[in-house]
Design goal:
- The complex is a heterodimer of chains A (about 210) and B (about 400).
- Chain A has about 210 residues and is of the alpha/beta class.
- Chain A is about 30% helix and about 20% strand.
- Chain A contains 8 helices and 7 strands.
- Chain A has helices spanning about 15-20, 35-45, 55-65, 75-80, 100-110, 125-135, 160-170, 190-200; strands spanning about 25-30, 50-55, 70, 85-95, 115-120, 170-180, 200-205.
- In chain A, strand 4 (about 85-95), helix 5 (about 100-110) and strand 5 (about 115-120) form a beta-alpha-beta unit.
- Chain B is built from 11 helices and 12 strands.
- In chain B, helix 5 crosses helix 7 (about 270-280).
- Classes of the chains: A alpha/beta (about 210), B alpha/beta (about 400).
Chain lengths: ~210, ~400
């Protein structure tokens, strides 16, 4: 993971939705928690026992000073230390595409959590496709705001790419939510084929028993 | 009368003054030590600050470091100096005496009022000296647990400590998880490293090489191994700082002279500083106590105690942890705090970990360090909210 304390894609519009997916009384681990926005939201709105991992020590120190439970750690290397099914939910929001080994990270997430909640920008979105097709250039969009040489996003995928991987790993998709550029539920929510073209972001709830 | 005798008598008067308050456990309630010996009577000298609330849920136990004592936030009766954590503990400070009830006890084996090698051995009526049993961090914590019980506190809101105090915090969390709502181990480790044992051994050998030590029997012979203890302190003090801090503070500056003296006076400021540290230390500390407490640290190995799996020390723990380390601390480096964090993660414990950037070395935990203050304040506030502690009483 190469992200700094801020998440790679700035706007954290999906957080309300993620928070609403967490059942009260749960034990939650937020991987790549950044400045702790989701942890604060969970603390304020849900009765949960939540903690975070963040790669930047500055981000961690700021979070702890605000009363959040955060440790410095790297999703690529440190998840192996966590116990199997030690958490009700493990959240990886807008970070998977910035990890060095997304498949290994995903395997760890569904091992540690009874459920994993994952969101990422959809590289199959029509704006991305158009940018490459018409301009012949790497896409710079609202959910992918970086130029190619400064982006922390090193493993981008489309919604279809992601679901292919989960199927090959034997992971159950319990919920899929397509999001538009503002992070609101997309009109294409019920049709994954359309979502792969029209949704700017995707949110999955996964499980592997 | 020579000055050593005078000093010794002065010290005796201080001992006679007693360090109050004192919790006493009689011959009928011995403390079984890790070495197998039953220690009785047992006295624990302690200080408290703030007010214990009605349901006794706001108590914070502060565990002191190797050469610390219970005067964490009040004037030391021997040195007349302010409490060693005055900047952290007090009204409106990170550990707020308007909100919490703070307890700090002199560890057993210490020399500021709790039972230790300077105490009278009931079998002989003379100071224990080396007949005092070797104690461990576990023994210190078991003794503190008795004090906490005697104060009628079922669960501590928090246990905080740095260095050897941090070892006690870890021991508390492992041995009495239900009695520790939250824990803050600072600049510490789950086991004492070979390098740290080595430094301690240098200190002990300096004490034992002093002819005034008399095989540990100096209290009965009205003598004091001041030179040995001072050298031990000087060597140890270097390990509490950092190369960068020493360079910044002293560089190669000369002490009260224009040029080097071609002799073995304290030419350099750093020498003069260390000599002062050594001589100031012997006024307030007992040499045998220093042997016992360094030994207790050397023996500390929480990992070994739990079958070489540190995570097992914290299995199923409900305690909220906050670990703190300092970048320039080479005595208890960040990697050792990280090992503890990893073990806590493996137990799915609620853990925060902050590494603070500073040049101040191991001693940083005792100094004015804004990020340390912010971390403690944030962590304690959040824990108090979880514990449903009200602001004020």
């Amino acid at each position: 993971m190469v992200s700094d304390s801020a998440h790679p894609n700035g706007g954290r519009v999906d957080l309300q939705l993620i928070a609403s997916m967490i059942e009260a009384g749960s034990r939650v681990l937020d991987v790549g928690c950044g400045d702790g926005e989701l942890l604060r939201l969970l603390n304020a709105t849900r009765d949960v026992d939540c903690r975070g991992i963040e790669i930047s020590q500055k981000g961690v120190n700021a979070g702890v000073a605000q009363g959040l439970s955060v440790v410095q750690g790297d999703a690529d290397t440190d998840l192996v230390n966590y116990p199997t099914k030690g958490f009700d939910y493990v959240i990886l929001s807008q970070t998977l595409q910035a990890t060095r080994a997304p498949q290994r990270v995903l395997r760890e997430l569904v091992r540690i959590g009874k459920r994993a909640v994952i969101s990422f920008p959809n590289f199959g979105h029509w704006r991305v496709r158009m940018r490459i097709l018409l301009k012949g250039q790497m896409p710079v969009t609202g959910t992918l705001p970086y130029l190619w040489y400064e982006t922390p996003n090193i493993h981008l995928c489309s919604i279809d790419d992601f679901t292919d991987m989960t199927h090959s790993m034997g992971i159950t998709i319990e919920r899929f939510i397509a999001l538009d550029r503002q992070g609101k539920v997309s009109l294409t929510n019920h049709c994954q084929g359309l979502a792969n073209l029209l949704a700017a972001q995707a949110l999955f709830q996964l499980r592997m028993d | 009368m020579n000055s050593t005798t005078e000093k010794w008598e002065k010290e005796q008067r201080q001992v006679e003054l007693r360090f109050e308050p004192l919790m006493r456990f009689g011959m009928d309630a011995p403390l079984l030590l890790d070495c197998g010996v039953e220690l009785a009577p047992l006295e624990i000298a302690y200080q408290t600050y703030g007010v214990l609330n009605q349901d006794k849920s706001n108590a914070i136990l502060v565990c002191h470091a190797l050469t610390g004592d219970q005067y964490v936030a009040s004037t030391h009766p021997v040195t007349g100096r302010p409490g060693w954590w005055n900047t952290i503990i007090g009204p409106g400070r990170p550990v707020d005496t308007n909100r919490y009830f703070i307890i700090c006890a002199n560890v057993i084996g210490g020399c500021i009022g709790s039972t230790g090698p300077t105490s009278l051995n009931p079998a002989t009526g003379k100071p224990y000296g080396l007949s005092f049993p070797v104690i461990t961090i576990g023994d210190m914590v078991n003794a503190q647990a008795r004090l906490v019980d005697a104060l009628g506190i079922a669960q501590l809101f928090c246990v905080i400590g740095g260095s050897m105090g941090g070892m006690q915090v870890l021991q508390w969390a492992a041995a009495y998880p239900e009695k520790v709502f939250s824990a803050v181990p600072i600049a510490t480790a789950a086991w004492h490293s070979a390098q740290n044992i080595a430094f301690h051994e240098v200190g002990r050998q300096a004490i034992m090489a002093d002819p005034e030590w008399c095989g540990g029997d100096y209290p009965n012979q009205l003598r004091r191994p001041e030179k040995g203890l001072a050298v031990a302190r000087m060597a140890a003090h270097i390990t509490y700082l950092s190369e960068a801090a020493l360079h910044e503070k002293f560089g190669r500056n000369l002490q009260d002279r224009e040029k080097i003296g071609f002799g073995f006076d304290a030419d350099f400021q750093v020498e003069s500083y260390l000599r002062h540290q050594g001589s100031a230390f012997v006024d307030r500390f007992d040499a045998n106590s220093y042997l016992y407490l360094t030994r207790a640290m050397d023996y500390f190995d929480l990992t070994a105690e739990y079958g070489d799996v540190l995570a097992d020390a914290f299995r199923g723990t409900q305690t909220r942890f906050c670990l703190i380390s300092f970048t320039s601390d080479w005595l208890f480096p960040t990697s050792e705090s990280r090992d503890i964090v990893q073990a806590l993660n493996a137990s799915a414990a609620n853990v925060s970990f902050v590494e603070i950037e500073t040049q101040k070395g191991h001693d940083a935990f005792l100094l004015e360090e804004p990020e340390l203050f912010a971390t403690l304040t944030g962590f304690l506030n959040a824990a108090a909210q979880k514990r449903c502690l009200k602001n004020g009483f």
